[in-house]
TrEMBL record:
It comes from Amycolatopsis japonica. This is CobW C-terminal domain-containing protein. InterPro entries: CobW-likC_sf (IPR036627), CobW-like_C (IPR011629), CobW/HypB/UreG_nucleotide-bd (IPR003495), P-loop_NTPase (IPR027417), Zinc-reg_GTPase_activator (IPR051316). It catalyses: GTP + H2O = GDP + phosphate + H(+). Belongs to the SIMIBI class G3E GTPase family. ZNG1 subfamily. One of its GO terms (cellular component) is cytoplasm.
Length: 338
């Protein structure tokens, strides 16, 4: 019998590995398929949800906190129930987990769901080719995450040389033998991989039955070791001060994402910011109409002094909101990748 249930695919991977980028690629190349999306932001500003919205008309955002720690599955279930209503005509649902989520618990939530019209469709785990080796040293748990994957996407191949990539493939094969690996950049994978997804009978070392019975073990989640800071200001930032902050960011501050306002400087004066590890990337676009001009950042790190980070950001606010420091802007523009 043909299984007509809607597959729910989890997209996971450590902070900044490229989950939102992959999701946006998928949405832009959906070939007529209707994709429902659940986005889980770790910080209290829904940056990922902002990056995905506009691309899709059926998105739900599960903000501020890790989906894997939803005390019971009901919040997620309610979203999935809404997305899987017949009128929505959804073919596949994709859940973008936060970069600190535990795939094991997300899979458990999925298989515990009593919704008869959806089915767990497997785990797509992203690996950041440039950062994986060092992240894995800090978080050996990542090996277990790979073990649960039905598909590994080795992303950011443009940021690693051939030798590193070959070594990474060997490592992934050791950790998750037999799991298909797709190497790519900017999450550009074949979207059809998502449309007829069926997971393996078991997730990693565990059968679905084992997973169903397992207790939720919050203490060992690695997001318990991470803090996030949300920073918002309506006042323009000073480019020099902000770049000083970015170039000398506190150790442990692994991920920053959001939008920056440096005041009135041209039509495309909304600056998107991403940092992942030591990497900094900025892009620029116009402010969407109806959206207030303001800077909004989420900063995520381990062992960071959140008050000190907030104080340093407050010190980046420009003295005069009407005057843009043009020379200071050159330091910002150096990082633009349009
Ligand atoms: N050079 C390069 N950059 C990439 C690639 N894929 C994504 N990025 C960049 O990496 C940064 C993080 O990408 P996201 O897609 O936001 O990563 P994420 O996994 O959703 O991040 P979190 O939700 O914070 O965990 C952004 O600056 C992306 O433009 C890639 O293949 N190559």
């Amino acid at each position: 019998m043909v299984d007509r249930r809607i597959p729910v695919i989890l997209v996971a991977g450590f902070l900044g590995s490229g989950k939102t980028t992959l999701l946006n690629h998928l949405l832009a190349n959906r070939q007529g398929a209707r994709i429902g999306v659940v986005v889980n932001d770790f910080g209290s500003i829904a940056v990922d949800a902002m990056a995905v919205s506009g691309q899709v008309d059926t998105m739900m955002s599960f903000g501020n906190g890790c989906l894997c720690c939803a005390v019971d599955a009901s919040g997620l279930d309610a979203m999935l129930a809404k997305l899987s209503e017949a009128e929505a005509g959804i073919d596949v649902i994709v859940i973008e987990a936060s970069g600190l989520a535990e795939p094991r618990d997300l899979i458990r939530l999925m298989i515990a769901s009593e919704n008869p019209v959806i089915a767990y469709g497997g785990l797509v785990e992203l690996v950041d080719a440039a950062e994986f080796e060092s992240t894995r040293k800090r978080h050996p748990e990542l090996d277990e995450h790979l073990g649960f994957a039905d598909l590994v996407v080795l992303n950011k191949t443009d940021r690693a040389d051939e030798e590193t990539l070959a070594k990474l493939r060997g490592t992934i094969d050791e950790i998750a033998p037999g799991t298909p690996v797709i190497a790519t950049s900017h999450g550009r994978i074949d979207p059809t991989l998502f449309f007829d997804a069926r997971p393996r009978e078991r997730a990693g070392q565990m059968s679905f039955d084992d997973l169903r019975e397992e207790e939720h073990d919050h203490e060992h989640h690695f997001h318990t070791a991470y803090d996030s800071v949300a920073f918002t200001t309506e006042r323009p930032l000073d480019p020099r001060r902000l770049m000083d902050f970015l170039e000398q960011r506190p150790g442990g501050l692994y991920r920053i994402k959001g939008f920056l306002d440096f005041g009135p400087n041209g039509a495309r004066s909304r600056f998107g910011l991403h940092t992942v590890g030591s990497f900094i990337q900025l892009d620029r676009s116009a402010w969407p109409s109806g959206l207030p001009r303001r800077s909004e950042l989420v900063l995520i790190g381990s062992g960071i002094d959140t008050e000190a980070v907030t104080a340093r950001l407050e010190a980046c606010v420009a003295d005069d909101p009407e005057v843009v420091d043009e020379r200071g802007m050159l330091r910002v523009l150096r990082f633009i990748q349009d």
